[in-house]
Amino acid sequence: MKAKITIKKISGIVVKASAYENEAAASTFMAAMMNYGYSMTEDLYRAVKSLSNQEIKELYHEVMPVLQELKGSGVNYIVMYPNFPAQVMKASRVELFVNALTHYWSLGQWMPMYDEVKRELGLETNKVIMLDLVTEDQYQSLFTHLLTSNESLSADDKSYIEWFIQNETDLTYPDEIPFKENMCVVAGLFMQNEKDISAFIKTATDILRLLTYLSGGDVSLAENTKFKTLSRKYRRLLVKLIEKVASEEDVYRHKNKWIRAFHSLHVGDYSDKVYALARKFRNNEKVYTFNGKVQYELENRDLQVLLKLLSQRAGEFARRLDHLYREFPVHGDVITEAFLKVAGDVSTKVLLQVLGHFYTRVQAVNQKVIFPKGNVQRAKLIKTDFAALDFKYVASICNGIESVLVGRFAKQEDLGKVWIEPELMYCPIPSQQRSASEGLFSVARGTRLPLGSDEKNTLRFFIYWVGKDIDLSATLHDEDFNLIEYISYTNLKSAAYQACHSGDITSARNGASEFIDISLKEAYEYGARYVAMNVLVYSGPTFAEHEKCHVGWMLREKPQSNEIYEPASVQQKIDLMASTRNVIPAVFDLKERKMIYCDLSTMRSVHWGGNNVESNAASIEQTLRSIVQANNKVTLYKLFEMHAQARGELVETKEAAETVFSLDKGITPYDINVISSEYIA
């Protein structure tokens, strides 16, 4: 796990240098890494060659399985048409139809028998991922970055926190764990190891998250959890903490969850006070809350009282700001002044959310994209009818928030001379990572990354799974996001768009794979602007209930040469483990030659023919539109620009900079935990 953490998080390996001169073994090790698209920096190579033969062997057996896993290697990619893609493009529609029908009639057991033609060798250059030498201190600092993140963590990252706590000693804990969901992971592990957790618990919701974590539920509290029955010792501990911190308003926020939690904890056995609280909610007695008071003043139209009330809770004020401008359009100056007086009390995360929102509010809003909280990430396009806000108020709010943030950032360590790559204007700040899939890399949804060399014209999707029938599909869309063609089990090829599918396999008890090739230049010239990668469970359980399922994509120069699956050419590999049956891992902009990272589930719509792209066309188009048009987030460029203004000096070249923010050097969009802990603080 240690090698996996450092390779994924900081592209490096911890090596304690010795005194040997083992050039041959080190070179052999590096050559093996290059088969997977990895290599060593000079510093790492020097450290590895200083090890003994035995030490290099041990390091090899620790590192290589990680590289295999990250690139999706180590499984047998058997396809229906072994001479894909040429074999599919040359086959008649009748041949493809009869083969598919016979396969379906046999319940997925029959496969067409073709002689596999020896594939030509083709020299392709692939971008190499350089692994650097990592110190023990750098490795340990990852724990701090995870805990001080101001954003939710992925399931992968939470497992890393658990690994550190359970396997490492002398860990440095931060003074504060700012994000409550991350705090409950630590509190849960402390509790299971008989350590005091009272310092973590500030509110009743903290306890509810902790109980949810111990029950294996969604700690964002977006979904209901079946609470596990805890031992009397743990029940007594949690009830005593509830007695100490709970308020009626805090419990009211998650009333129904608390009613079930009170029952699970047997609160009457341990506290009369908590039992009385539980009884009040079970009996549905009236509870007076802050939000109730705000709603009352809104209905009363008393702006002065309302602003005074909201100023007591600046975060709530920030979330209601747009609503206030719309409710009291002639009093924008008063609202702006009142908010900016308390904006310094709002967290950086919320200020950035508000800033991103108001960047778009000089225009009317007839629809907005929302990403509901929870473990399954879906983009929803909501119809609205919001008139444009007065430019004067929008400018004042944006300038005021930026001023607060710059002042806050100025208290951090000096950055010196700073260079920011313009491409970061197309990369939103990270958010809602709790539902992020584990992959070769992680970036914020909506991030646009260059596809690479123009010489590589074939985009190849791949999937490998074990279990029920899963289908790999591609949908091609025009400038307006309308579906114009699809490649799926019902349409294996398109001569016009130069795209094809390797053949639909419906039974994967021992593992199965499918591929799709898209010719980028030809598809764009024929009218396709976007290609969406779609993965759908035809019928059966969710991805989480399958034994294994991973997907990804490659960029190939010679699609008929070398193996169908070449790990060195893999640009991304994602493990699908969500409790959903439809997902769009990525969208590709053929005009800009960019990948738009998606990792979003789509709403499932099944007709008599099963779950496929045809029955989900509307949902796919909506998700595509949502991810491409979403512009209500602050970009990494803007975030880093404010930091440079506060504590650095912008320079025009990368070479002149002491601090670099770019796609591939210094702080990059892949450094989600560093950005969340150090730059959204």
Structural overview:
- Among the domains are: 2-75, no CATH class; 447-629, sav2460 like domains (Lipoxygenase-1, Sandwich), CATH 2.60.60.
- It is α+β, with helices and mostly antiparallel strands.
- The strands form 5 sheets. Strands 7-17-16-9-14-13-12 form a 7-stranded antiparallel beta sheet.
- α8 (155-167) packs parallel to α9, α13 (255-265) crosses α14 (272-282) and α15 (290-300) runs antiparallel to α16 (303-310).
- 40% of the residues lie in helices and 18% in strands.
- A hairpin with a 5-residue loop joins β10 and β11.
- The chain is built from 25 helices and 21 strands.
Topology diagram in text:
Elements: H1 2-10, E1 12-14, H2 23-34, E2 38-40, H3 42-49, H4 53-71, H5 86-90, H6 93-105, E3 129-134, H7 136-147, H8 155-167, H9 180-192, H10 204-214, H11 232-245, H12 248-252, H13 255-265, H14 272-282, H15 290-300, H16 303-310, H17 314-319, H18 321-327, H19 332-342, H20 348-359, E4 365-370, E5 380-386, H21 391-409, E6 416-420, E7 438-439, E8 448-450, E9 458-467, E10 470-477, E11 483-487, E12 493-494, E13 499-501, E14 508-519, H22 520-525, E15 530-537, E16 548-556, E17 570-575, E18 582-589, E19 594-601, H23 617-629, H24 636-647, E20 648-650, E21 659-661, H25 672-679
Parallel strand pairs: 1-3, 2-3, 6-20, 6-21
Antiparallel strand pairs: 4-5, 7-17, 8-19, 9-14, 9-16, 10-11, 10-15, 12-13, 13-14, 15-18, 16-17, 18-19
